[in-house]
Write a structure and sequence with these properties.
Layout: E1 9-11, E2 14-16, E3 20-22, H1 37-45, E4 51-58, H2 75-90, E5 95-100, E6 117-118, E7 127-130, E8 133-136, E9 141-142, H3 145-164, E10 169-173, H4 179-184, H5 199-202, H6 204-217, E11 222-226, H7 241-255, E12 259-263, H8 277-284, E13 288-292, H9 297-306, E14 311-314, H10 316-320, H11 324-330
Parallel strand pairs: 3-4, 3-14, 4-5, 5-10, 6-9, 10-11, 11-12, 12-13, 13-14
Antiparallel strand pairs: 1-2, 7-8
Helix pairs in contact: 1-2, 3-6, 6-7, 7-8
């Protein structure tokens, strides 16, 4: 009997050959912020996933938060991504671009000397990757309402660029303490205008971004990542997380997005949340639920077989195992990731992990 994890799944307009998803993974290997030949090979090797979600790709120069991360706002970046999507499609895969604005998780040296921007002024107690090392983030200033509208337009334009680059869909990054999360949570959003205060106001930026992206890419090719009970990047835990993220899911349902990529618990930490919390959000969402956070083969099989998830995303295991979906299907041994090569560098720790079957490499 084939476990459901290894069977096809339709996520909106995206036909997945299995339910094993490659999670977005920042690797800092894009000099000039342009995806190149290394990216083509890296993603091609991983085309056995039911869906690849790319590393976060900044929607504008001001959306950048880490050195050597690819963008999706220039013609050169679109051309670079076109080579990636063509290689993945030739290998039988499906790939979505993650649309990213880091907000306050940045540094002036990455922004031409400008201050990072956020829902409200202030610095996060977090670090960013600059010049081959991690440094404290800079002091952010609050976006004006006109700048918020311009940022929504940046998301729309980035979604159009992703479609032009041949992606099968897009994932809006609304998790892990980045810009959308900074608007959502009352721990980071201290605004007194129509984007701050009550939950209905704090989900407004999310709603406008989702609407713009859906208008450009189509609801059936739009997904989003959220992380309600994670304090990643000093996001803080909202004073009423269940109510906030129920309202966020209502926004997603109204837009008809294809999938919700949910970080269950603390990012990179335990899959833990208040009793019934994730379960209530799962029941509320009408689309495909992609679970993420510390899953192994057995827990992923159980999650999908039980219906607690429709698919499961893997991060670090996909760094070390280009053919992870195939290895999981046959319960093969896994390569161990090497953390020293996660960020920056060349082929070592990027495209040189061995595949189980040489033909797949």
């Amino acid at each position: 009997m084939t476990e459901k994890l290894f069977t096809p799944l339709q996520a909106g307009d995206i036909a997945m050959k299995n339910r094993v998803v490659m999670a977005p993974l920042t690797r800092n290997r894009a000099p000039g912020d342009i995806p190149g030949p290394q990216h083509v090979e890296y993603y091609r090797q991983r085309a056995g996933a039911g869906l690849i979600v790319t590393e976060g790709s900044q929607i504008s120069p001001m959306g950048k938060g880490y050195a050597d991360t690819p963008g999706i706002h220039s013609a050169a970046q679109v051309a670079g991504w076109k080579a990636v999507t063509a290689a993945v499609h030739d290998a039988g895969g499906r790939i979505a671009a993650q649309l990213w604005h880091v907000g306050r998780i940045s540094h002036p040296s990455l922004l031409g000397g400008a201050a990072p921007v956020s829902a409200s002024a202030g610095a996060a107690k977090s670090k960013t990757y600059v010049d081959g090392a991690f440094h404290p983030t800079g002091e952010a200033r609050a976006l004006s309402e006109a700048e918020i509208a311009a940022t929504v337009e940046d998301f729309r334009r980035a979604a159009g660029n992703a479609m032009a680059a041949g992606f099968d869909g897009v994932e809006i990054h609304g998790a892990n303490g980045y810009l959308i999360d900074q608007f959502l949570r009352d721990t980071a959003n201290r605004r007194t205008d129509g984007y701050g205060g009550p939950v209905a106001n704090r989900v407004r930026f999310l709603s406008e971004v989702v609407g713009a992206v859906v208008a450009e890419a189509g609801a059936g090719r739009t997904g989003i990542r959220l992380s309600p009970w994670s304090n990643a990047n000093d996001a803080g835990i909202d004073s009423d997380t269940p109510a906030l993220f129920a309202a966020a899911i209502d926004v997603l349902n109204a837009a008809g997005v294809a999938f919700l990529h949910m970080v269950e618990g603390q990012t990179g930490g335990p899959r833990a949340w208040p009793e019934g919390g994730i379960e209530a959000l799962r029941a509320r969402f009408r689309g495909v639920w992609i679970a993420n956070n510390g899953y192994d083969r057995q827990s992923a099989i159980e999650a999908v077989d039980s219906g607690r998830a429709d698919a499961v995303a893997f991060g670090k295991l996909y760094i070390a195992n280009p053919d992870l979906a195939q290895r999981l299907a046959v319960d093969a041994a896994l390569n161990a990731p090497v953390p020293a090569t996660f960020y920056g560098g060349g082929a070592e720790g990027y495209t040189d992990y061995p595949a189980l079957y040489p033909a797949l490499a």
